Each structure stands twice: as C-alpha cells, then as structure tokens.
Amino acid sequence: MIGVKGNYYDIFQNIDFTSWLEYFTDGIVDELMRVEKNLPQIAVSPQTELKPYHKKILDFTAQKGFITNHDYSILVDRAKATRRLDFNKLIKFGLIVRRGKGKNTHYVLREK
Q1: Domain 52-109 has CATH 1.10.10.10
Q2: Model pTM greater than 0.85?
C-alpha cells in the first residue's frame, strides 16, 4: 500500500512493510561490507597487540622520519636480538620498512 495516509494506529495492520525492510537491510549490509574493507586486517590479540615499546618506534619514526637500532637502544632497555624482533614485528604488520644494510640499516614508516 504505497501512499497510504492516516493515523498510523488505525492503518498499521493493513500496511506491508516487507519492501521497506528489504531496502533498509540491504543498506545495512552494504554499509557493513564497506566498513569491513576499511578495518585493519590485523585483529588485536596477544600476538598482534602493539606494546608501548612498539609505539615508541612508531612515534620516534614519525617525528624524525626514520629510526636506527642505536636510536631504539637509547629509547628502551631491550637486548639487541629483542630489538630486532620488535622491528621485524612492525615490518610484518606493514607499519615500517627496512632500508639500507649493515650499519646503515634504518627503518621508515610505510607509505600508504
């Protein structure tokens, strides 16, 4: 019944809401699919959670433009092998990129 006018409480039993509900739920599904594409691909879990020392790498890199292992060793009290694991985790997550080799190795934020 398109274009029915009157007091809702007098006519609601005669109105078929099916087409409106289908239209509305299609819109919700479309929006959820759009949001799903924009969500980060990495879910937060103990394996993917960024710790404060990871955030220090990202903050320092955002401010200075790059970070070296030496810079990171000044920021945190972590063993060299552990610092390497921290960098590798951020590389794996696609947040930073390794540049250079040997003593010239440094890390920059990944361009989006």
Answers
A1: yes
A2: no
